[in-house]
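Quick one, tokens below:
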């Protein structure tokens, strides 16, 4: 496929990647890694411990590992300056906010986790909508249509 028809053109590697884009990719990758660790932990506890429902514990763990693919793929795309990657990264942050809120409502050690998740999600959202990030990903805003001659 030629560069003219590529729906997600990559910006020139000659330009340095903005620090905001790198930070957004790192936060998305961190979230994906946390989901993988949590999923594996749930599977191990489900198989070796004595959960109320072993099948539910293992299914929950597998679900977390599969869900980790979204932020991990988004982080990879952000590092490679793929325009499509911002959408999954933003969706991940939006989905993280209600999870953080629920963790903050708990009366346990989940509260610090909720605070950390909320801070990461809000910081990543700010980084992802930043004009420097948008420009580095080659995303054009509304009304910024190129002439088609």
């Amino acid at each position: 496929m030629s560069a003219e028809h590529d729906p997600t053109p990559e910006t020139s590697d000659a330009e340095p990647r903005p620090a905001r884009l790198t930070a957004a990719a790192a936060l998305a990758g961190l979230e994906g890694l946390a989901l993988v660790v949590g999923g594996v932990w749930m599977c191990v506890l489900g198989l070796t411990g004595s959960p109320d429902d072993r099948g539910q514990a293992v299914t929950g763990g597998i679900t977390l590992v599969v869900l980790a693919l979204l932020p991990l793929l988004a982080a990879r795309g952000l590092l490679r300056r793929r325009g499509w990657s911002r959408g999954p990264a933003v969706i991940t942050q939006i989905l993280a906010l209600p999870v953080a809120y629920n963790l903050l409502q708990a009366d346990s050690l989940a509260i610090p986790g909720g605070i950390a998740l909320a801070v990461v999600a809000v910081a990543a959202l700010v980084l992802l909508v930043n004009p420097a990030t948008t420009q580095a990903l080659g995303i054009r805003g509304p009304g910024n249509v190129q002439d088609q001659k």
